[in-house]
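Try this one yourself first.
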């Protein structure tokens, strides 16, 4: 037993008591793995109790999310852990089949679609914007698909543009066509020469979505369905354009307004973020997706090797995940005390998302909260973000220690 494991065991009894008192729920699916030595089982129990406590504390802390749901899976053994509520109006608990906005984890879906096309030679990582999308600004012509996928393109982030923000605020329920989203940055210079540095930009994945359409002659939503959703059996995942969410759904909240908490679940049409953040899914589907995506089910080993060959140190999405973050092609690596996992995070009004898997895809963890928290948070909000990252770390320990 490792020193870290012994430390966990000391607090198991108190942790379990705290979990019972907070009313957190846990359910398991699949057949448990055969019994391992007692020390391994004890570590697993300690990790499970620690995750449940961290979720309960996250919901209970000042400024914490109304609800949180985590899924952990090792092999066929899947567990669902929840705290708080999915809907403040009804008190309904979060469930693995509830719909939610996956925020910037949508970028992983877009990357999976593009890399699937790379695997069949319908797209190339060195294909340029100028070749595939000649109607876009000339300054973007030499940017490659590779640079878009690893956020080294230099494209300004359209969501940070004041004109975009004013337009979105004026028409939150109705978004423009995808090819119009980037017009607000057409006259802006690149932030840096393509390939010279890393900077996370929502614009990158809008261009990737447009390149997918140009390469296939189909709408991105159709290619996403054919290349990712259907192969993985993601029946509860789609990329809508409007504001509606299927029922039942995890209600996302904003705790900042004077009349808080405000339900912002259907505040803004998904089309405003499209291939960069517009996907709607469920915790169950998100878990299945990250396992298949990281595990190589959507493209061959050569493409997978390209994706994981080079990670950019310090590259992180919003919000950063636990441990040491680095970035590759629509994929982030989290080097943590319990091991290395690959995945993506996301943040959008009402939701913050985290989805990771072991490099072979056999171990996975997702954590979804009904509140937006990002690295720009301050004070109490920053404390919530740190508590979320701690819960994510504990979830990683649970799957990596699990037999």
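Now uncover the answer:
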């Amino acid at each position: 037993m490792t020193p870290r494991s012994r430390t966990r065991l000391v607090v198991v009894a108190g942790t379990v008591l705290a979990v019972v008192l907070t009313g957190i729920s846990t359910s398991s699916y699949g057949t448990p793995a055969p019994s391992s030595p007692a020390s391994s089982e004890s570590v697993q129990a300690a990790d499970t109790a620690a995750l449940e406590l961290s979720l309960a504390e996250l919901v209970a802390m000042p400024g914490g999310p109304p609800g949180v749901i985590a899924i952990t899976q090792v092999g066929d053994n899947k567990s669902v852990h929840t705290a708080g509520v999915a809907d403040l109006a009804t008190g309904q608990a979060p469930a693995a089949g509830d719909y939610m906005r996956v925020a910037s984890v949508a970028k992983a879906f877009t990357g999976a679609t593009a890399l699937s096309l790379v695997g069949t030679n319908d797209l190339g990582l060195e294909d340029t914007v100028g070749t595939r999308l000649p109607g876009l600004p000339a300054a973007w012509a030499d940017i490659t698909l590779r640079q878009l996928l690893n956020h080294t393109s230099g494209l300004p982030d359209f969501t940070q543009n004041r004109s975009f923000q004013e337009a979105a605020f004026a028409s939150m329920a109705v978004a423009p066509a995808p090819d119009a989203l980037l017009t607000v940055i057409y006259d802006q210079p690149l932030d840096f020469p393509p390939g010279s540095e890393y900077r996370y930009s929502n614009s990158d994945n809008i261009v990737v979505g447009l390149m997918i359409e140009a390469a296939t002659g189909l709408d991105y939503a159709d290619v996403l369905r054919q290349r990712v959703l259907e192969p993985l059996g993601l029946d509860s995942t789609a990329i809508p354009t409007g504001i509606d969410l299927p029922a039942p759904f995890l209600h996302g909240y904003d705790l900042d307004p004077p009349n808080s908490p405000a339900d912002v679940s259907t505040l803004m049409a998904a089309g405003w973020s499209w291939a960069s953040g517009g996907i709607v899914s469920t915790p169950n589907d998100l878990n299945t997706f990250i396992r298949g995506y990281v595990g190589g089910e959507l493209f061959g080993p050569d493409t997978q090797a390209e994706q994981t060959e080079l990670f950019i140190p310090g590259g992180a999405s919003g919000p950063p995940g636990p441990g040491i973050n680095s970035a590759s092609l629509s994929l982030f690596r989290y080097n943590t005390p319990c091991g290395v996992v690959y995945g993506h995070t996301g943040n959008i009004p009402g939701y913050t998302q985290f989805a990771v898997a072991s490099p072979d895809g056999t171990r996975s963890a997702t954590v979804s909260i009904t509140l937006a928290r990002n690295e720009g948070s301050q004070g109490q909000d920053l404390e919530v973000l740190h508590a979320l990252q701690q819960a994510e770390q504990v979830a990683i320990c649970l799957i990596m220690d699990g037999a």
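Discussion: Residues 291 and 361 are 5 Å apart (CA to CA). The longest strand covers residues 339-348.
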